């Protein structure tokens, strides 16, 4: 129905009759209502009003007009807001505006309700299941909710739903509600609907019930170990009678309530045990919050073992230590410990340093393994993807090796024949935020749009939709050409210290020229090679080792950094620069003469 409605609207909108306000949804060349001042005309559709010369305003479907306002409407129309609106019931009326409705001849073949349609008369011949024809030849729901088929007359049921049976004109349950299937001959229920079972009286009840009654969806009594709350719910374990599922009124025989209200087996020697074997020291199931260990005792969580008479941990799993009665986790990467700060063994790659596990450092490389690893893997992944790309796209083996400068819009983009598509100005929305787009909109609207049209006629027509409510015009700044560097610049797989360090943004730019005062001497050593502070991981610019002595910068000795940003022990760099007169950074090889 909704789709039919939308289609009608589309038809109305596609009305091509001049001066017509609404066309017929079924006959688009028939006007139903003309614009003010026009009247319907068989040939022209809507023609200027002829009668009432004096009145400039003609009111459609008006019978009597007085002083340019309607006093009485034609039959079938009623006066509303000075106009004659069709009187219609909601079933044969189509509303366009909240208060404007039109009589229409609707198709009665709603495909959701109608099975076979008479296309010529637009009537439904046979309705779908559960629907039947009414006096207007529309398909409406069968009057009996238990009717499965009433398709020629919505009042007369031909077939009832499963579990009901036709008695006279009505579908009635065969002996019990919730029946799944009735016997035609005995008119008795053969089996119950899904999730339902016969009770002792032959009624179909919820499967949790002991009994229910004919016309009730709920249970009337429950089995043992369950309580009634519309349907039946199980009591807690080993409970015989209860009224809710959080406590027990009477435990089953051989069980008694413990301090928490659980029904635990009488005489069981294991504490916190729910069920045990022959009242022995072997527990089968613990009460909530306790776990069974391999000795069949009920312990606190995280214990490896405990005793039968107490949940307190006796032993713990690896990676945990016994803290009085519970097991607690050791510190990170520690496999065994005697307490949190006293690790006894560490995981692979870790060593014990004052009770904790620290990563084992390799001295020869001051750079972190992951950095090298990631550079290598980026290179490998890059090569693989280029390789795959080449295989998949053999026709386009054009690897852009030169730098391509995309000119702003004033140059004709079709002249660019390098095999690389230029960036279209209108695709660069991502470079601008919405505010900028809005700001540039008013300017762009007049100037840029025109110039874009002239220079780039085909594309601009495609990209600019002048009818859209929020047009987006984006212009590439004219002053600065956008540099577009082809992706996948060749990666250098050989890692050298300088390359690696230059990736760190904190480093001074070593490409800057060397200034005079950077020639280091005994006079300016203190100021040009200043004392620096290490960060939390005892590194400076990510470097943890002095380049001269290869010892760690442990924070105990003064650390100084050269203007290139590479750190040294204060005494090492002083020795090298002043006493040995080797005025070059050992890391980046920059000279300080
Ligand atoms: C069918 O049901 C209606 C109400 O649903 C009742 O008024 C009517 O008497 C019933 N007819 C028969 C034949 O049972
Ligand atoms: C369950 O029933 C007991 C009485 O038997 C009552 O004290 C308790 O509050 C009930 N719990 C809930 C959640 O209704
Ligand atoms: C407890 O009983 C209530 C009804 O009283 C039910 O809605 C709920 O699902 C039951 N909870 C459990 C865990 O059985």
Automatic annotation (TrEMBL):
Keyword NAD: no
Keyword Membrane (UniProt): yes
Sequence ranges assigned to domain RING-type in this UniProt record: 546-588
Signal peptide: 1-17
Transmembrane spans: 371-392
Biased composition (Polar residues): 452-470
Protein name: RING-type domain-containing protein
Source species: Stentor coeruleus
């Amino acid at each position: 129905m909704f789709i039919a409605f939308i289609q009608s609207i589309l038809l109305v909108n596609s009305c091509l009759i001049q001066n017509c306000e609404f066309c017929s949804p079924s006959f688009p060349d028939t006007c139903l209502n003309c614009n003010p001042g026009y009247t319907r005309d068989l040939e022209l559709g809507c023609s200027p009003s002829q009668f009432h010369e004096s009145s400039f305003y003609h009111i459609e479907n008006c019978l009597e007009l007085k002083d340019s306002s309607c006093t009485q409407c034609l039959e079938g129309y009623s006066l509303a807001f000075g106009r004659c609106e069709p009187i219609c019931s909601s079933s044969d009326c189509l509303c366009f505006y909240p208060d404007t409705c039109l009589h229409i001849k609707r198709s009665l073949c709603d495909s959701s309700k109608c099975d076979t349609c008479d296309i010529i008369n637009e009537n439904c011949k046979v309705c779908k299941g559960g629907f039947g024809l009414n006096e207007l030849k529309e398909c409406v729901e069968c009057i009996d909710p238990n009717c499965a088929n009433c398709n020629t007359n919505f009042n007369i049921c031909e077939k009832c739903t499963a579990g009901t049976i036709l008695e006279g004109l009505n579908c009635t349950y065969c002996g019990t509600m919730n029946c799944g299937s009735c016997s035609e001959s005995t008119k008795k229920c053969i089996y119950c609907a899904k999730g339902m079972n016969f009770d002792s009286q032959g009624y179909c009840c919820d499967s949790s019930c002991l009994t229910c009654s004919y016309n009730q969806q709920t249970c009337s009594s429950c089995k043992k170990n369950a309580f009634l709350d519309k349907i039946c719910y199980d009591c807690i374990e080993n409970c015989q009678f209860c009224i809710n599922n959080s406590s027990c009124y009477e435990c089953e025989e051989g069980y008694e309530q413990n301090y928490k209200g659980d029904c635990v087996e009488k005489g069981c020697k294991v504490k916190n045990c729910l069920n045990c074997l022959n009242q022995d020291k072997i527990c089968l199931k613990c009460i909530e919050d306790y776990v069974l260990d391999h000795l069949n005792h009920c312990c606190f969580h995280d214990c490896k073992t405990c005793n039968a008479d107490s949940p307190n941990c006796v032993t713990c799993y690896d990676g945990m230590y016994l803290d009085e009665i519970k097991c607690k986790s050791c510190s990170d990467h520690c496999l065994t410990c005697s307490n949190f700060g006293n690790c006894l063994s560490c995981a692979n790659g870790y060593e014990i340093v004052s009770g904790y596990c620290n990563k084992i450092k390799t001295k020869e490389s001051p750079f972190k393994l992951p950095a090298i690893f990631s550079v290598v893997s980026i290179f490998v992944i890059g090569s693989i993807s280029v390789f795959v790309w080449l295989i998949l796209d053999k026709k386009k083996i054009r690897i852009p090796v030169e730098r391509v400068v995309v000119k702003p819009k004033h140059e004709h983009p079709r002249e660019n024949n390098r095999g690389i598509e230029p960036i279209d100005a209108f695709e660069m929305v991502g470079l601008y935020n919405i505010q900028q787009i809005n700001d540039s909109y008013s300017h762009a609207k007049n100037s840029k749009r025109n110039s874009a049209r002239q220079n780039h006629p085909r594309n601009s027509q495609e990209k600019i939709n002048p009818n859209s409510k929020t047009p987006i015009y984006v212009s590439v700044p004219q002053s600065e050409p956008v540099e577009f560097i082809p992706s996948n610049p060749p990666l250098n797989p050989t890692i050298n210290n300088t390359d690696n360090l230059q990736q760190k943004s904190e480093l001074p730019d070593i490409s800057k020229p060397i200034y005079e005062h950077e020639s280091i001497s005994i006079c300016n050593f203190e100021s040009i090679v200043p004392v620096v502070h290490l960060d939390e991981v005892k590194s400076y610019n990510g470097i943890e080792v002095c380049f001269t002595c290869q010892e760690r910068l442990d924070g105990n000795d003064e650390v100084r950094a050269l203007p290139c940003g590479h750190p040294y022990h204060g005494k090492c760099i002083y020795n090298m620069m002043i006493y040995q007169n080797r005025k070059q950074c050992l890391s980046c090889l920059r000279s300080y003469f």
